[in-house]
Structure formats: C-alpha cells, structure tokens
From TrEMBL:
Domain Carbohydrate kinase FGGY C-terminal: residue ranges: 278-427
InterPro entries membership: ATPase_NBD (IPR043129), Carb_kinase_FGGY (IPR000577), FGGY_C (IPR018485), FGGY_Carb_Kinase (IPR050406), FGGY_N (IPR018484)
Keyword annotations from UniProtKB, A to Z: Carbohydrate metabolism, Kinase, Transferase, Xylose metabolism
All residue ranges annotated as the Carbohydrate kinase FGGY N-terminal domain in the record: 4-211
Keyword Transferase found: yes
Domain of life, per lineage: Bacteria
Keyword Ligase among UniProt keywords: no
Molecular functions per Gene Ontology: kinase activity
Protein family (similarity comment): Belongs to the FGGY kinase family.
GO biological process assignments: D-xylose metabolic process
Protein name, as recorded: Carbohydrate kinase
Length: 477
C-alpha cells in the first residue's frame, strides 16, 4: 500500500499527516514551535521550525513503514524569511503577525501606494506582509538584506533545506508582488515600494509548483518525491474541495481565513484581502485572512482561567446575545487586515456588569469572531456552498454558533486539511491519479437554527455599527 504524506509548517504547530490511497488518515505527528512576541513584533527561529519538520517527518515515516509515494508541503504564508544560499537563516524570521512596519504602511495609505498596489495586484498590504516588512528592513537593517540570498516564505525555506532547490509558487508570491494576470512579479509594484534594487532577493516562481527529491538526512525520507505546494490557505481550499466559483471555505484557526473561489479579478472597492493565484490560470481564491481567530479566544480563556474543554458547556450556558455582553475581537498587535486594513484597531469589550458571567464573556467572544467571519465571507463574495475547518471546529457548540451567525449550512471537513491539500497538489503535479472527491468529502453538515439565525442577522448589523465606530477611533489615534 502506498503512503502519501502532507507536511504543514504552521505558525504555532508543525504537523505531518500520512494518508492512504483513499485519503484516509493513517497517522499524524506534530511538534509545537515558538513565536517570540514583544513590542508589537513577532519573530520565529527558522532552525526550530525546520527541526520540527525533520522530527515529524522522521517519526511519521518510521511509524507507517512501507514506501512513500510522494510528499506535499505547505505552511504559513506572508512574513519574511531571510536565508542564505543554503536556505539557512540570516536573521530570525519575521512573522505575518508582526506589526513593526505599521508606520510605514500608514504613510503608504496616505500617499495612495496601498491603493495603487491593490488595483494592480488585487492584494491589500498589511504590516506583516513582505512588502512593508522588506521595506522596513531596507531602512533599518539593510545589512541583513545585503547578507541574504533570498527573502522567501516559510514552506520555501523548508523546501530548500529538504531538497536544495530555491523556489516559491504563485500562491505565496501573490502577496504583494505578483501581477495575477501575468503570473509574474510586477516591476511596477516593486518600484512603488522602493524595493526595485532588492528584486534579486525574490525567489523564482515555479508555475506549476516545484518538485524535487528529498536530500536532507535525518528526515527518514531520503529520495522521496516532494512538491513545494501552495501555502496553507489555498492548500486548505484544495483539501476541502473548494474549487468551483462561488464556493467558499472558512478556516477557524490562529487567524480566521475566509476564501471564495472566483474566475474573475475584483480590483475595485475597498482595498482589502487578496487574490491568491492558484495552479490554474484564470482561477483565483478571493481571500480575506483576518487577524482575528482562535488566538483571540485563547487569550480570553487564559485571562478568565477557562479550559478549552469547558468552552462547549459555557456556550450552552449563555443565550444568544450573551446577556448584552459584546466583544470586538481584534486582539492582534498589528490590528486587522481583512476585510479591511486597520493597523491600530484594538479589541473592545462592552456591556459588562457585576452580573455578567464567564459564560457570557466566552459566548460574546465566540459571537464576535463569528460576526467577523460573516463580514469576511460577504466581502469575498460567497454565493455557493461553504465548508469549514480548523481547530475551532473541534468545539461542536461553536460550530453550531457559526452556522447560526452565518445563516447557512456548513460542510464540516475534519483532520489535517492543509496537509491533505498539499498531497493533492503534489499528486496533480506528479500526475498521480487520486479520487479528489473522496479525499475531500465532508464528514458532516451542520444546519443553522432558523430562529437563532434571524436573531443573529439583526445582531450582525449592530456589530457592523460598533466596528465602524471603533475604526473611526483607531484612525484618530
């Protein structure tokens, strides 16, 4: 029996999953990785990330035995991972959660640069994306850029360390330098960001995705075929079977990502989100990857001393509306990036009294995140079916709440969806025929409750009004 392995190098966890030919999960190995957060900055140790990849891959191949048919690779997007010619770190990786470039981005907003880049690429920059981060480094740490051979993304660093091949793909390149019509870096965009002289740092775009054999020892996979697939958001879309125009995916993870498959670029309206190029020309994912997500709930749980195992019970203990408690869940130090860009936006908690309970606070937080999801999906143009995945779906009560707030059925896709999508991308690239429909079939469908859906439709309007007021206050700072 052939084994297919998907690797997902995430922000807080590195995972590897083994699947059989029918897409059934055989085994999963995972290792946590640290994130250094301080003074609005977020950095990661590349050697730690790659070490975690090596560990999970070695453990997985040792446990499943037998031949590995192929390996698909995915990982977190955005940020800047400066490496030398061997793919080794020049400095710590700057994460997509980093906020150090917010003042530079403010200036670009005021001068119209952000809007002009969006009209060209369909991607709205935020502090942690490569454009502002590279420009910040060029101004404050030029020696680091001088010493680097490449400014890559997480999975590209891993791929180079595993195979010796330096390359990225069209999905990672989509933010913010890729012209989505030409599927190539835009010299005009680089010039407008003051980065034309740093163009040599950008890795070659492999279209379709790059393939090679694993050459790194200590991985248990020497000689195995591997593909440097799309990054985690489009990989999850593949793993959830979201490819038909109008269909969407909601990923309830560290960040809250809303994706809708589209066959046309929408470059008008408020610059926000991005158009992720896929392996098919003329096909994109309209993405609204919000900063808000499970990290917001995790913070509230830590502050209140509530365990994850208690969430379902507390959600059931408070009614819709949480007795008037409201949470705008924008806890990220770099503000929000979708479906709008507001670097100084911060979380707000209102309607609390001495009568409020922990259940009210937990439910209000989960409702606020679900309202943010509705905002993102609306802005992305959802018109078809909706799949949902991610760590947040492990809470059945929260998943039902999402269905009620969104007012539509949810196709539940369980397991390591990103790793599954990475395998499917690798199989497509290598010409290996897999039953994609079987691999991506939902495990359940959750229907909304009509009464609660009506309640939340009105509550959503209130959420938008409070959000507009909060954004106005953030701009006034």
């Amino acid at each position: 029996m052939s084994t297919y392995i998907g690797i997902d190098a995430g922000t807080s966890m590195v995972k590897a999953a083994a699947f059989d030919e029918r897409g059934r999960t055989l085994r999963v190995e995972s290792r946590p990785v640290s994130l250094d957060l301080h003074d609005g900055r977020a950095e990661q140790d590349m050697d730690e990330v790659f070490g975690a990849v090596s560990e999970v891959l070695s453990a997985l191949t040792g446990a499943v035995g037998g031949p590995v048919a192929l390996i698909g690779l995915t990982g977190q997007g955005d940020g800047v991972w400066l490496v030398d010619g061997e793919g080794r770190p020049v400095r710590s990786a700057i994460s997509w959660m980093d906020g150090r470039a917010h003042e530079l981005l403010d200036a670009w907003h005021s001068s119209g640069v952000v809007e002009s880049v969006f009209r060209r690429t369909g991607s709205a920059m935020f502090p942690g994306c490569p454009g502002p981060v590279l420009a910040w480094l060029d101004r404050h740490e030029p020696a680091a850029l001088d010493a680097a051979a490449s400014a890559v993304y997480c999975k590209d660093m891993v791929f180079q360390r595993l195979t010796g091949v330096r390359a990225t793909d069209v999905s990672d390149a989509s933010m913010p330098f890729l012209d989505p019509r030409e599927r190539a870096y835009s010299g005009e965009v680089l010039e407008s960001l003051g980065l034309a002289r740093r163009r040599g740092l950008l890795p070659r775009i492999s279209d379709p995705v790059a393939v090679a054999e694993v050459t790194a020892e200590g991985t248990g996979a020497l000689g195995a075929r591997i593909a440097n697939g799309p990054y985690d958001l489009p990989a999850c879309a593949l793993g959830a079977g979201v490819t038909a125009p109008g269909d969407g995916l909601l990923i309830v993870g560290t960040c809250l990502a809303a994706l809708v498959a589209v066959d046309a670029l929408a470059l008008d309206g408020e610059p926000a989100g991005l158009h992720i190029s896929t392996d098919r020309a003329g096909h994109w994912l309209r993405a609204m990857p919000a900063m808000v997500g499970t990290a917001a709930l995790d913070w509230v749980l830590a502050i209140t001393g509530v365990a994850h195992t208690e969430v379902d019970g507390l959600l059931d203990a408070a009614p819709p509306g949480a007795h008037g408690v409201r949470v705008l869940p924008y806890f990220a130090p770099s503000g929000e990036r979708a479906p709008f860009v507001e670097p100084r936006l911060r979380a707000e908690l209102t309607g609390v009294s001495l009568e409020s309970s922990r259940a009210d606070l937990i439910r209000a937080t989960c409702e606020g995140i679900a309202f943010a999801a509705r905002h993102c999906l609306s802005a992305a143009g959802l018109s078809g079916t909706l799949a949902i995945c991610g760590g947040g779906t492990r809470s059945s009560a929260w998943t039902r709440l999402f269905a009620d707030v969104l007012g539509r059925p949810l196709r539940i896709v369980e397991g390591e969806v990103g790793a599954r999508g990475a395998v499917l991308a690798a199989a497509e690239r290598y010409g290996v025929g897999l039953d994609t429909a079987g691999w991506t079939a939902p495990t359940a469908v959750v229907e909304p409750d009509p009464g609660r859906a009506d309640f939340y439709a009105k509550a959503y309007d209130d959420h938008l009004e409070r959000l507009a007021a909060a954004r106005a206050r953030a701009r006034a700072v």
